[in-house]
Design brief:
This protein is mostly beta strands. The chain is built from three helices and 59 strands.
Length: about 625
C-alpha cells in the first residue's frame, strides 16, 4: 500500500511538472514584451516579459480580448494576429537588461510612442503585421517598416499592414518604407491594405511606401473610416491612387493630410495622385481633408472619383496638385461601362492653384467631369487653376451655385472675383478680413486672429440656406464660401449693430388715419453681429390718455398691458416681421416704440436697437 501511494505521488509530481513547463494558454489577459529581457526567464509579466512580440500573441489564445504592451526598441520579424482580438500597443519605456536581471522589471504604465519608439522591422517575406479575422484588435504606437506584402499567389497586399475582415483599429503608427511591387504580380497598398474589413485607420503617418496601386493605403470593401492621417510621399507605379486607392460599402475619409504622392511612375499614365475613389457600390464622404503637391500624369492630380461611385465632398482644401495630359489637376470625375456615371455633391471647398503645365486636352483644371457623371457644386471657391476651372463633356453635367470661380459660370449666387486668399504661397487659403482672419501661424505658432487691409468678397456670400452657426461672430448670419465656411476658422464679417424696426400700416411714419381705420403695428429685427446675444425686448406705446393709461406695453405672449413692462428676455435673432397690434384707436397722437437693451430687466439702455413710429388719429 505504501509503495502504491509513493508511485501515485510521483505520478502527480510528474504531471504537475508538465503543466509548469508548458506555455500558458490564456483566455484573456495582459502581456508585456521587451527585447531587453535577456535573462532567459519569460512569463509575459512586467518583471519577466517576453522578448519577441509573436511569443506574447502565441499565448493569447481562446476567447476574450488580450492586451500586449511592447517596450521601445527594434523588433525584427513579422507579426500575425489570426482569429484573435489583441490590442497590440507600442511606445512603453520598458527596462534595461540590468533592470530585468536585478528583478526590478520594466515600466509599462504610460504609453508615449514619440519618446519610446517601438519599431517592427519586417523580414522582407510578408506583410510586417497581418490582422486576419482579428475582431476589434488594435495596432497602436509602432513604426512598421520593411514589408513586402501578404500574397495569395497572384497579388501582394499591404506591405506594412494587411487586414482581412474584422473591425480593427490602426492608430498612431508610422508606416514607412514598405514595398509590394513584385514582378508578374499586382501589388496594392504599399503601406496598408484592407479587404472586406470595417477597419478604422486613425492618426497614422503613412509615408515613403510603394505599390502598383494605392502607394500609401488600399481599401476594398467594408465600412471604413480613414481619419486624421498624414499620407505623404507614397508612389503607385501603375495607374490608380498614389496616396490612397479606396472602394467600399461606406467610406469616411476625413481630416487627413494627403501630400506629395505620385501615381503612374512606371506606367507613364494614371489618375488620382492623392486619392482614387472607385466602384459603383462605393458610397464615400470626403471632408476636411488637405490635398496638395500630388501628381497624376493623366488627370486627377489631387482627387479622382470614378466607376459610378456616389461621393459627398465637403470642406476640402485641394491646391497645388498637378497633371500633364488631360486637365482636372484638382478633381477628375469619370464613369465606366454601360453609361454608369459617378455622382458627386461638392460644397464648402477651396480648389485653387492646381496646374496642368501643358495646358491639358480639355482644361477644367479645377474640376473635369466625363462619361455620364453629374457634379453639383455649392458654397465653393475655384481660383488660380489657369483660368479654366470647369469642364464637363457632352454626356456630363456640372451645376454650380453660390460659388466664386475665375472662369465665369452662370448660376444663382455665383461670383467671379478675386477671393483674396491670405497667403496661398504658404498654403494659407483663409479669406482676408478687416475684422478678423484666423492665422494658423499666429500666436507663436498656435494660431490667432489678425486684421487685414482688405475684405474678401466671398465672406457672407454662400447660400443663405446653408448653416453658418459655427462661424465666429460677427458672421453676418450667412455662410462664407470656401473651405472654412461654417467652421471656427471662418473669416469674420464686417461689424454691424442690431437694427430694430417698427412700422405702422407698413410705413416708417408718421402716419395719419381716422378713428375708423385699423392700425397695424409690425416689428422686425436684423441682429447684425450680435446674433445670439441675450437681450431685453421692449415694445411700448405712449398714448394721449392721462396716467395710468399714458403707457402700454406688449408682453409676450399675453398681449398689451398698462404700464411699462418687459416684453420678453431672449436672444437676438433675425425676425423678418411680426405683428403686435391691429385695431382702431381713439382720436389722439400715439408713438409706438421697439427697443432692445442689456438683459437686466430695466428699460434704461444703452440701447442695442431703438426705433419708433408716430400715429395720429383724427
Amino acid at each position: 500500500m505504501i509503495k502504491y501511494e509513493k508511485c501515485y505521488v510521483l505520478w502527480l509530481l510528474s504531471l504537475l511538472g508538465i503543466f509548469l513547463f508548458m506555455p500558458a494558454l490564456v483566455n484573456a489577459g495582459e502581456f508585456f514584451v521587451d527585447k531587453n529581457n535577456t535573462t532567459g526567464t519569460e512569463d509575459g509579466t512586467s518583471k519577466h516579459p517576453y522578448n519577441t512580440i509573436q511569443e506574447a500573441i502565441a499565448v493569447a489564445t481562446g476567447g476574450g480580448e488580450h492586451t500586449v504592451r511592447v517596450a521601445q526598441g527594434d523588433y525584427t520579424g513579422n507579426v500575425g494576429i489570426d482569429t484573435l482580438t489583441v490590442h497590440l500597443l507600442g511606445g512603453f519605456q520598458g527596462g534595461t537588461p540590468a533592470d530585468y536581471a536585478g528583478g526590478a522589471g520594466g515600466v509599462f504604465d504610460a504609453q508615449d510612442p514619440v519618446a519610446h519608439v517601438t519599431r517592427i522591422q519586417g523580414d522582407g517575406t510578408d506583410a510586417v503585421v497581418k490582422l486576419q479575422e482579428s475582431g476589434t484588435s488594435t495596432l497602436d504606437g509602432f513604426v512598421v517598416t520593411g514589408g513586402t506584402g501578404f500574397t495569395d499567389s497572384y497579388r501582394y497586399m499591404g506591405g506594412g499592414v494587411y487586414v482581412a475582415e474584422g473591425s480593427p483599429t490602426l492608430s498612431r503608427n508610422i508606416i514607412e518604407g514598405n514595398d509590394t511591387e513584385h514582378v508578374g504580380f499586382i501589388g496594392r497598398g504599399g503601406g496598408i491594405a484592407a479587404e472586406f474589413s470595417n477597419v478604422h485607420i486613425i492618426g497614422n503617418t503613412v509615408r515613403n511606401n510603394i505599390s502598383d496601386l494605392g502607394g500609401g493605403i488600399s481599401v476594398n470593401g467594408g465600412d471604413v473610416v480613414i481619419e486624421g492621417n498624414t499620407v505623404q510621399d507614397n508612389t503607385a507605379t501603375e495607374d490608380h491612387g498614389g496616396g490612397l486607392y479606396v472602394s467600399g460599402n461606406s467610406l469616411t475619409v476625413t481630416n487627413n493630410r494627403v501630400l506629395d504622392n505620385e501615381v503612374g511612375q512606371i506606367a507613364g499614365y494614371g489618375w488620382g495622385g492623392g486619392i482614387a475613389v472607385i466602384g459603383e457600390d462605393t458610397t464615400a464622404t470626403l471632408s476636411y481633408n488637405h490635398f496638395s503637391g500630388n501628381f497624376a500624369p493623366t488627370a486627377g492630380g489631387g482627387v479622382f472619383l470614378d466607376d459610378g461611385a456616389t461621393v459627398v465632398v465637403s470642406h476640402e482644401l485641394i491646391h497645388h496638385n498637378e497633371t500633364q495630359a488631360r486637365g482636372g489637376a484638382g478633381v477628375y470625375v469619370d464613369g465606366f461601362g454601360d453609361e454608369i456615371g459617378t455622382t458627386v455633391t461638392m460644397s464648402h471647398c477651396t480648389i485653387a492653384d492646381n496646374l496642368c503645365p501643358e495646358g491639358g486636352q480639355f482644361g477644367g483644371n479645377g474640376l473635369l467631369v466625363e462619361y455620364y457623371s453629374v457634379v453639383t457644386v455649392q458654397d465653393s471657391i475655384f481660383w488660380g487653376n489657369g483660368g479654366d476651372d470647369f469642364y464637363a463633356n457632352e454626356t456630363s453635367q456640372i451645376t454650380a451655385t453660390y460659388t466664386d470661380s475665375e472662369e465665369t459660370v452662370v448660376g444663382t449666387g455665383n461670383l467671379s472675383s478675386n477671393p483674396l486668399f491670405a497667403n496661398p504661397a504658404n498654403n494659407d487659403y483663409h479669406l482676408q478680413s478687416t475684422t478678423g482672419r484666423w492665422d494658423p501661424a499666429g500666436g507663436g505658432g498656435t494660431g490667432g486672429w489678425v486684421l487685414d487691409q482688405n475684405q474678401s468678397p466671398c465672406i457672407d456670400k454662400g447660400n443663405p440656406q446653408s448653416a453658418f452657426a459655427n462661424e465666429p461672430a460677427p458672421n453676418g448670419n450667412r455662410i462664407n464660401m470656401g473651405r472654412y465656411g461654417n467652421t471656427e476658422e471662418a473669416s469674420k464679417s464686417l461689424t454691424s449693430d442690431p437694427v430694430a424696426n417698427i412700422r405702422a400700416n407698413g410705413s416708417d411714419g408718421p402716419v395719419t388715419v381716422s378713428s375708423l381705420d385699423q392700425v397695424s403695428i409690425n416689428i422686425s429685427l436684423d441682429p447684425g453681429d450680435k446674433a445670439g446675444q441675450n437681450a431685453d425686448w421692449w415694445i411700448a406705446v405712449s398714448t394721449p390718455f392721462a396716467p395710468p393709461g399714458d403707457w402700454y406695453t406688449y408682453v409676450y405672449p399675453a398681449g398689451w398691458q398698462q404700464g411699462i413692462n418687459l416684453c420678453v428676455q431672449a436672444p437676438l435673432v433675425n425676425l423678418p416681421s411680426f405683428e403686435v397690434f391691429n385695431m382702431a384707436l381713439p382720436v389722439g397722437t400715439y408713438t409706438f416704440f421697439f427697443a432692445l437693451d442689456e438683459s437686466d430687466g430695466m428699460p434704461a439702455g444703452p440701447w442695442l436697437g431703438l426705433d419708433s413710429v408716430e400715429v395720429t388719429v383724427q
